Amino acid sequence: MAKSGISNYRAFHDLTKILLTIGGLWPYSNSNILYRLLSYVQGFLSLGMTLVVFGFILENFSNVALVTRGLNVMTSFTSAVLKVVCLILKHREMEELHKNLDPYFEKLLENEKMLEHILKKVNIFRLLSGVLTLTVFAVIAFQIIAPLIFIINCKVHHVEIKKYPLIYPGNYPWNISASGSLYLAHFTLETFGTFALFFVTTSVDSLFTLYNFQIIGQLREMSYYITHIDSDDDSGKYIFHRCIIQHQKLIKCVKLMKAIYGPVVLWMMSTNAIVLCALLFQISKVKTITIIQSVMFTPYVILQLLQTFIYAWCGSCLTEESENYKYAVYSANWYGNRILMSSVVIIITQKPLAITIFNSSTLSSKENFQDYFSFFETTLTKFYYTDF
């Protein structure tokens, strides 16, 4: 059980680290300038694609079908730009958060008696990260393959192509030839932009789940030690004092998480429902849906729901584990010990750890999904009852 839990955590941790390292976003303490430039490259690629697609939307503003098609793509690239900007601007906060969580959790893994407690649900966290990575890969793979299939199909049936399709609907400030080196250069550029979108989306979202799991692991460790206090006053006082200090560090870690991911979560919760409505509206206007279209639409819909679920579920798990820690403190063997009573009061009067979005909304699977689907229903109704 412990070995499988460690292997699941290692796979989860290593996948997140590899994805972030490729994009230049993993918080290494002594990273060089060339490594940091990778994050800027990904940001500029995503920003360039955002502007190109935005130009397409402005050019076809009177055509709702084309606007909704471009809106889906532009929102995805804008999200990637926002994630890169947040991690670059909050680089010091990222390093501090990483130093407080990752090395400590590695030490916890060396304690065999703690493995069963701190690695609970690690397979679910790993599964969510893996499914997210595969879903994003499927979405971008279909984006790249779709124009290639169209070109090959036209060649096989000897159909003359006046203008070769690119990966995304875009409007460049210069004319692109039907084929040739200029077309190939633009196709390559959009391919790099697609890979940048893949690495940013998967890595930043997976890092959020990883840090949440590491905070939850420390809360479980604290609960374990407090519930195993013996009658020795000195050892109990030491354990409570240590847990108070550790809990203060976790409060600071949660604040750092809010500072780094606050804008990302707010943007994602606001746009995912709109994009999903626009996508379903686009599907409803198609008379016949081909197999290729259904294969392309399905992973994209799953991705929008999965991203929302991951953030909301992780926030809910963090708050739940914080409540369990307070209950463990209250249930500990401190009755009649005046030395420990002050420590208990300090701990149980603390608010449970929770990730809030700009101090207005708390990340919770129940509350966020109710708000999400309520907004989704309202927006979708407006789409269908508006005369375009």
UniProtKB/TrEMBL annotation:
Belongs to the insect chemoreceptor superfamily. Heteromeric odorant receptor channel (TC 1.A.69) family. One of its GO terms (cellular component) is plasma membrane. One of its GO terms (biological process) is signal transduction. It is found in: Cell membrane. It holds the Pfam family 7tm_6. InterPro entries: 7tm6_olfct_rcpt (IPR004117). Its main location: membrane. One of its GO terms (molecular function) is olfactory receptor activity. Keywords: Cell membrane, Membrane, Olfaction, Receptor, Sensory transduction, Transducer, Transmembrane, Transmembrane helix. The chain crosses the membrane at residues 37-58, 70-89, 124-152, 192-213, 259-281. It is a multi-pass membrane protein. This is Odorant receptor.
